[in-house]
Design goal:
Layout: E1 12-14, E2 20-22, E3 30-36, H1 45-56, E4 61-67, H2 79-90, H3 109-117, E5 132-135, E6 141-145, H4 155-163
Parallel strand pairs: 3-4
Antiparallel strand pairs: 1-2, 3-5, 5-6
């Protein structure tokens, strides 16, 4: 009997407007999943994330942003407000989704799975906004990056994933 392995493509998430979106729609693409916040010291990373998306989208990269208010109340508004902020202030055109919890009993199942695939330094808990997960075309997690890792530093890994 074949064993089934969960991949990114098995999850459905809510868009910023609340509609369900199957991540299976991104099968065959390299995906960078990021928990974001619009009032964080790391918020300027939206610029680097958008540059990565602009540079590699035609080759198959998509960046998925998930606003999160679990860290110092740095995403207090609605998901739609977060999406509008990112678009107006950082020119974000990559998909933004509904606000999620990434840790704890109410953590979104996607982030529970991501954390189980690539744990952190001392535990699998996400420590802050802008933790990044790189997922290959097959839906399997390739790497996890700390919140302070600048998006530009991911370019070589993104290129390798796109080539692989």
């Amino acid at each position: 009997m074949p064993t089934t392995t969960t991949t990114l493509h098995d999850f459905t998430v809510a868009t910023s407007g609340g509609a369900p979106k199957s991540l299976g729609d991104f099968a065959g693409q390299v995906v960078l999943v990021v928990n974001t916040a619009s009032k964080c010291g790391l918020t300027p990373q939206f610029e680097g994330l958008q540059r990565l998306y602009d540079q590699y989208a035609e080759q198959g990269l998509v960046v998925l942003g998930f606003p999160c208010n679990q860290f110092a109340n740095q995403e207090p508004g609605t998901a739609a407000e977060a999406e509008e902020f990112c678009s107006l202030n950082y020119g974000v055109t990559f998909p933004m989704f509904a606000k999620v919890d990434v840790n704890g009993s109410d953590a979104d199942p996607l982030f529970v799975w991501l954390r189980s695939q690539q744990g952190g330094l001392l535990s699998d808990a996400i420590k802050w906004n802008f933790t990044k997960f790189l997922v290959g075309r097959d839906g399997r997690v390739i790497a996890r990056y700390s919140p302070t890792t600048e998006p530009e530093k991911l370019a070589k890994d993104v290129e390798a994933a796109l080539a692989g």
